[in-house]
Amino acid sequence: MGEVEASLDPATAGLTFDPEASVAAATGRTWSPGDLVTRFFGSLDVPAVTAVDSEALETSLAEAQSFVDVSPVDATIAFADGAAVVGDPVDGAALDVPAAVDVLTESWLSAQGPIELPVTVVTPTLDQAALDAAMTSIVDPLLSGPVTVTAGEQSAALEPATLTGMATVSGADGAFALQLDQDALAAAVTEALPEAGTAPVDASFTFVDGAPSIVPGENGTGIDPAQLLAVVTTAAQSPTERTAAVELVEAEPEFSTADAEALGIVEVISTFSTPMPNDPPRTENLRIAAAKVTGTLVKPGETFSLLETIGPLSLANGYNLSHGVADGVVVDVAAGGVSQMSTTMFNAGFEAGMEDVVHRAHSRWFDRYPAGREATVDDPSLDMQWRNNTPYGVLAQSWVADGRTHVQLWGTKHWDVSIESGGKYGFTSSRTIYNTRASCQPESGGREGFSIDVTRTVSLDGARNDEFSNTYTTTYVAWPRVVCGPDPSTLPPPAPAPEEPAPPAEG
């Protein structure tokens, strides 16, 4: 077995010395003159007789195979930096158990050292012949030059480095085969041939006379990835035919007209509005946000994100400076006032039974919003999100008119929703804040803080849904009294007035 050694316990392995058979072999009847003379006057070599339990011996040898046998190693082909990296095949070895039984039976008692057992060579499935064939028929052609892909009047060359980056060569049934990554190949050809075909157009929604209308999707033309894979794989392995011609096929949009119709966007499922203060820059910010919200489609299971829809909240995105609350005081911020869109959109989703994902109330209560039912927003740290938990699509519509911000959600009514607001409790008093910022806005304060509970019950066909039915507790701080300037208690005491000189003495 080469350099591998193993020990067998003869008794366990079914090998035992048979003394009776050995004596019988030595004393058996014979009339040979030579044997008779040897028995009387000399010595006689008689081989020991072994008793063999063949089944036990084969079992012991089979157990030894686990560390005696060496598995063969298949040849491998990989690619790195546009070149082939080859792993050579290696033969394995396996103990020949039937032959080993014969050898041990004959020699286990008489051997003077380790007994060499017969081993057979095990060739790998992917041997040297398979490797040589693959190098000739796959690797050499693949690396020989570019493959030209043609689609109509457009063409592009895929260099060997590009092809090897998406290629694997694997074996089955004793032979290698080339596989190209279909997605990577399609992406490479699409990038190389951007004008091949026309992109399909997804169906969409618009509003006509205030109601949703489907804009039909349009088919395009493009390259069939499966056809592309087949012709490029063939050309890449040909030493002479290095052109892969593909025919443009009709390409359907990912979101078709039928998909849009199936969403069931046929009726208003909720509407909500909030009054606006008289602040023209703030109102313009809300008009900008409303235009971005209008037409937003939330498919079943998808989550609406206010920041993704109307952000970034920056001057560069068209918003204006207006009042907002930061660190408890009023300051001018980009897109100031869009928390009103957050609150209005939150309530539209809240009343439609949508799943509340993320929302946070303002730190102080503004009486233009329902207490305990409002949501602020801060880009990028705080979003307002709800998830469409219905089997229908939800289409948002928003506008600013008559001194109010409006949001309307279209779809198919699914949930029955009831909302109850409790009374205010846990009142707190105002505190005084000294603000030394140049943009300080003085505030008189005086409005108390409080807590409030709002309970939403969501039902379907008369059965309460516990997952989406919740009680929300909101706590607001009191409106502070803001004084522009430093805290007088932190100022150094005034210097004492100089003493007046004493009047001159009168004589």
UniProtKB/TrEMBL annotation:
InterPro entries, alphabetized: Glycopeptide_resist_protein, Vancomycin_resist_VanW, YoaR-like_PG-bd
Q: What segment(s) does the record annotate as region Disordered?
A: 486-507
Classify the source by domain of life. Answer: Bacteria
**Pfam families from the xrefs?**
PG_binding_4, VanW
**Transmembrane segments in this chain: where?**
none
* Domain YoaR-like putative peptidoglycan binding intervals: 45-104, 171-236
Compositional bias (Pro residues) at which positions?
489-507
UniProt-recorded name of the protein? YoaR-like putative peptidoglycan binding domain-containing protein
Organism from which the protein derives: Serinibacter arcticus
